[in-house]
């Protein structure tokens, strides 16, 4: 499992560039119950991420089995996905994800659910997470080992965000301007990085599909 660290560390660094979750935590620590509300947001988001990782792992296992014997329709679907990725890359330029405050009274249970929903909505675009799950599967750790590795990854993912309520408790509102600056940096990094990732993915999928129909075999 230690051999996975060099492979998962860079993916984790990109994965934590999540301005939506960070912004939600800033909102949460401004409530009357900062620890309970922010903890519920983070717990809901992280729990959903772990569940999504298990689902991704199961899906990838089936996909890899199908990829051993691909059909022409698979490359047509791949080309469509590639085109959508390219369109998404163009549409994502200069637009950070929606970080609007949830409406209504913020209770721990409601925030847990909202955090999970935010995660499930964003999972299809979590390309680093897909890559991380793929690396865990390739390590062939067995079911228990893979689940443990996935749990450790998710705990490491949540750790930087856990600093938000901790800093509020230790330092108070004086740290809020610094948190706002960090959130601005994350949003800017997301705006720059996500279109690039979608562009690369879209080009790779489209080129692989076109190569298959021209030469009879893809390159991915």
By DSSP, the count of extended strands is 0
* Number of H- or I-type helical stretches: 8
Our Rg estimate from Cα atoms comes to 19 Å
Unreliable spans: none
* N/C terminus separation: 26 Å
Shape: globular
Major β-sheet profile: none
Question: What is the average per-residue confidence, as pLDDT, rounded to a whole number?
Answer: 78
Return the string of H and E elements. HHHHHHHH
* Estimated helix fraction: over 70%
- The computed structural class is mainly alpha
| Percent of sequence in beta strands | under 5%
| Count of domains | 1
Overview of this structure, please?
The protein is mostly helical. It has one domain (2-69, 98-193). It is 78% helix and 0% strand. It has 8 helices and no strands. The longest helix has 40 residues, at 176-215. It is globular, with a radius of gyration of 19 Å. The mean pLDDT is 78.
């Amino acid at each position: 499992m230690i051999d996975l660290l060099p492979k998962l560390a860079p993916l984790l660094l990109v994965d934590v560039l999540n301005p939506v979750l960070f912004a939600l935590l800033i909102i949460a620590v401004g409530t009357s119950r900062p620890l309970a509300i922010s903890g519920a947001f983070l717990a809901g988001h992280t729990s959903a991420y772990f569940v999504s990782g298990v689902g991704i792992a199961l899906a990838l296992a089936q996909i890899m089995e199908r990829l051993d014997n691909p059909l022409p329709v698979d490359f047509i679907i791949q080309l469509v996905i590639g085109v959508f990725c390219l369109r998404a890359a163009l549409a994502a330029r200069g637009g950070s994800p929606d970080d609007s405050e949830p409406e209504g009274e913020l209770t721990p249970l409601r925030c847990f659910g909202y955090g999970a929903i935010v995660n499930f909505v964003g999972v299809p675009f979590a390309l680093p997470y897909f890559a991380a799950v793929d690396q865990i599967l390739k390590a062939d750790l067995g079911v228990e080992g893979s689940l443990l590795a996935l749990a450790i990854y998710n705990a490491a993912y949540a750790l930087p965000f856990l600093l938000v309520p901790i800093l509020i408790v230790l330092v108070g509102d004086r740290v809020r301007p610094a948190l706002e600056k960090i959130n601005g940096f994350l949003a800017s990094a997301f705006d720059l990085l996500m279109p690039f990732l979608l562009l690369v993915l879209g080009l790779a999928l489209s080129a692989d599909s076109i190569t298959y129909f021209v030469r009879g075999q893809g390159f991915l």
